[in-house]
């Protein structure tokens, strides 16, 4: 009796839409440059496996805590599924002794053989190896072809679906290695980042292009689509629609100084209110956003607002009223936190128009009608924007940037 080969959902949107999923027992390569979202896509694949009540063995060189934070950035509670033994994370050490070994090819063979040993021990339904690049630097490509084919065939015979993650090859020797591996796989998934003419990424949230190429089966063929990196969703080929912002709104950029609200024009729109978060919860969410930025380049903004005490003393506006105006001005995806005399807003979209839009909404939602009073109030509500960069490792770094900011001007508010 012939055994029917199943196609199961992969959690990778283009694959599921065009191919219907991946073959059970198939072997696939996932390749892309740094910060293209390879690990996020591998996590989506693992999450889909766990949702089907199947076991995924996840080999990784990433620290377990970092992997959990990255998973949380796409709303994936990795620890929950680990506790249920549906996700098994195996930390793999890089082959640091490789270049001290006289026969490095045979040294790498032992590493690949260890994959089979661990798979035999845990007997998963699917495996992820993120990433395989440093374990396949063979001098003899024929030897690599032989060992990799032998490894994949043993795993495939157990009906285990495999996803091997690779970095983007740069040198000719690296490209030859990828071509050698491609001879032994069912298909390849390639991620390419969107870049502008001078080679810099225009909008990191745009992601890039994903291509799925079959070697065996998947008679639907090869497909290419634009992909996007969405907070709490991960990599998708369908972008969430956004609100258009009038071109008249001035740019608010990350600055070392506060900018007065009175300098920003106001659109007439209605918005969905959002909720306030405790400082601990806000920091947890912020850490997730930072992890997403570190792994994919997906930017975000943290906007800090501070009300001058002179406004409160003159009974023109209370701190609670400012909180409410900000609450009414945020979208449901935005996160708000009160820290001392500051109100922080996390915008998960790091685009300029998101910041502009928020500022203009707050102006329109202030409960003041008197022109002279509102002018005075706006001059005494100060704004400080923090954008992520390489100096920011965690939420505490963002909070420190906000707390340590100071400058000299009679019309701006000082951080104490």
Main traits of this protein?
416 residues; alpha/beta; Rossmann fold; Alpha-Beta Plaits; 2 domains; 9-stranded mixed sheet; 5-stranded antiparallel sheet; 13 helices; 20% strand; elongated; disordered C terminus
Q: In a nutshell, what does this entry contain?
A:
With 416 residues, the protein is of the alpha/beta class. It has two domains: 7-236, Rossmann fold (3-Layer(aba) Sandwich), CATH 3.40.50; 259-404, Reverse transcriptase/Diguanylate cyclase domain (Alpha-Beta Plaits), CATH 3.30.70. It contains 13 helices and 16 strands.
Annotated CATH topology of the largest domain = Rossmann fold
Low-confidence stretches: 269-274, 406-416
The proportion of strand residues reads: 15-25%
Neighbour order of strands in the largest sheet: 5-4-6-7-3-8-9-10-11
What integer is the average pLDDT? 82
Largest beta-sheet details: 9 strands, mixed
**Gap from first CA to last CA:** 77 Å
Description:
The chain has 416 residues and is an alpha/beta fold. The chain folds into two domains: 7-236, Rossmann fold; 259-404, Reverse transcriptase/Diguanylate cyclase domain (Alpha-Beta Plaits), CATH 3.30.70. It is 36% helix and 20% strand. It has a nine-stranded mixed sheet with strand order 5-4-6-7-3-8-9-10-11, sandwiched between helices. Helix 3 packs across helix 8 and helix 6 (141-157) packs parallel to helix 7 (172-182). The radius of gyration is 25 Å and the shape is elongated. 40% of the residues are buried.
């Amino acid at each position: 009796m012939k055994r029917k080969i199943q196609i199961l959902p992969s959690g990778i949107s283009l694959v599921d839409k065009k191919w219907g999923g991946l073959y059970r027992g198939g072997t696939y390569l996932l390749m892309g440059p740094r910060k293209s979202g390879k690990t996020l896509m591998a996590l989506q694949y693992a999450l889909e496996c766990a949702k089907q009540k199947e076991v995924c063995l996840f080999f990784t060189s990433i620290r377990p805590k970092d992997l959990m934070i990255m998973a949380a950035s796409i709303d994936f509670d990795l620890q929950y599924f680990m506790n249920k033994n549906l996700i098994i994370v195996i930390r793999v050490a890089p082959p640091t002794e490789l270049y001290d070994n006289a026969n490095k090819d045979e040294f790498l063979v032992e590493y690949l053989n260890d994959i089979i040993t661990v798979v035999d021990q845990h007997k998963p339904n699917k495996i992820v190896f993120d990433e395989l690049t440093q374990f396949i630097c063979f001098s003899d490509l024929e030897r690599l072809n032989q060992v990799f084919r032998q490894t994949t065939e043993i795993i495939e015979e157990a009906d285990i679906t495999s996803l091997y993650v690779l970095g983007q090859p740069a040198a000719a020797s690296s490209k030859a290695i990828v071509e050698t591996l491609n001879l032994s796989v069912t298909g390849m998934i390639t991620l390419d980042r969107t870049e502008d003419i001078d080679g810099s990424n225009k909008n990191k949230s745009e992601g890039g292009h994903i291509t799925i190429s079959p070697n065996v089966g998947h008679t639907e063929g090869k497909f290419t689509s634009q992909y996007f990196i969405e907070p709490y969703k991960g990599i998708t080929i369908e972008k969430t629609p956004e609100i258009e912002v009038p071109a008249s709104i001035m740019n608010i950029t990350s600055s070392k100084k506060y900018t007065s609200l009175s300098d920003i024009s106001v659109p007439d729109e209605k918005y969905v209110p959002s909720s306030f978060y405790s400082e601990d919860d806000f920091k947890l969410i912020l850490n997730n956003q930072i992890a997403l930025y570190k792994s994919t380049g997906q930017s975000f903004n943290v906007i800090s607002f501070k009300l001058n005490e002179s406004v409160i003393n003159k009974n023109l506006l209370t701190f609670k009223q400012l909180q409410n105006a900000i609450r009414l001005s945020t979208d449901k995806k935005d996160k708000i936190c009160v820290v001392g005399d500051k109100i922080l807003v996390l915008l998960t979209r790091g685009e300029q128009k998101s910041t502009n839009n928020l500022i203009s909404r707050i102006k329109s939602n202030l409960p003041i009608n008197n022109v002279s009073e509102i002018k005075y109030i706006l001059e005494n509500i100060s704004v400080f924007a923090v954008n992520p960069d390489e100096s920011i490792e965690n939420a505490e770094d963002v909070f420190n940037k906000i707390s340590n900011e100071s400058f000299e001007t009679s019309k701006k508010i000082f951080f104490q």
